[in-house]
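[job 4471] stage=fold_predict status=RUNNING
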Amino acid sequence: MGCRLLAVCLGALLAFAPPAAAADQTKTVPDSRLQVELSFAPVVKRVAPAVVNIFSKRVVRQRGASPFFDDPFFKRFFGKNFGMFGVPRERIQSSLGSGVIVSEDGLIVTNYHVIKDSDEITVVLADRREFPAELVLGDERTDLAVLRIDPGGKKLPHVAFRDSDEVEVGDLVLAIGNPFGVGQTVTSGIVSATARTQTGISDFSFFIQTDAAINPGNSGGALVTLDGKLLGINTAIYSRSGGSVGIGFAIPSNMVKTVVAGALRGGDLVRAWSGLVGQPLTQDLAEGFGLETPGGVIVAKVYPGGPADRAGVRAGDVILGLDGQRVADVESFRYRVATRDLGGTAELEIWRNRTIKTLDLPLGPAPEIPPRARMRLTGQHPLDGAVVDNLSPALAEELDLPGAWEGVIIIKVVRGSVAHRLRFQPGDIIVAVNRKAVAEVTAVAEALERARAQWRISFSRKGKVRHVEFSL
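[job 4471] inference complete, writing structure tokens
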């Protein structure tokens, strides 16, 4: 009876205490058995109705009328193309995940990989009601997607966001989702780390790590704090067996909010951009700069007229923090900038000439200069079949090519074309045609107009300039 009463009292306190008061409370470890026996049930009852199951389907076309066509044993003897000339057939491929309702009118956040390429998305609420969902915004770079369902004018239970910068290692958290499709499940744990980078999970690698059990099917589910607010979206686990081993990763709520804000603007996702390229500050480099510890970003390149340039940032400066938050590496700096609101400024702490300086970084989107001019190149030349476009800071951000702010980039190569046979690849940046520098698509098209017997195409791939010579 005492335990139940304590649980109810705790739930009441959490439900009605103002956020500021809850954040200001002193955090202490339990000092009695009674405190250890406190229950999470009041928090779960409040949050769980806002966590949903998501079922997605897509039609996959396959050739071959027999399952033997996909058997590795037969492919070993008859080749990889065994069965490719059969009658095309269709099958339904299903995916299962979780999601979180973040507004009472039916806006839902989940992982992009849960609904990627789906033809049909169904959302099942905790009370078993089912709704068809439409994709409002999908962002593969952050692995986040925003869906919308129509509740018919009724208000839905939803979860408010918690500032993910406030969380500390050791804070208690709950993970809610639908692991293995068994139904809604709640697990508890602590925050194991708050700024995990170098994971390779998404382009913006900055995650909250937790030991709360996260398993397949939990993707898109909620990681919540004990005040019943959304701290992150569960997205991945580290495991050699496929099951939870106590290392799970969640996308911080501050990044989730930027994607939701884009969805509310009508699906237009625009992030703040710094206008600089940096490199990590290692121990050896730190000593050379006169810093006692590694961790930070050395500015290697600044875009003329961009936000960093206007703030007074120079190549060789070391970025130590942004808005009071420590910047440990390039990934954390990109995350900090991308989660700031457009139109304002951020306080940038830099190290220059062995002195700390503070600069005001204006927060604006990456410019699209020059404008896009996508074109498929055709003709008797080595780039026949290449789809190219003008590089700009905006396009470089979309393609995750930091510092590739100018030039002509290959977006796609048509299979079987001349460019494909010469092994040009998406991401190659055309530098020159017959030793004449080209900066825009129109210049490339003009250089390719004249028929020639000999061609020399210079291009940059992963920072190295290469050349292709071609004779007709």
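[job 4471] summary: The radius of gyration is 26 Å.
[job 4471] exit 0
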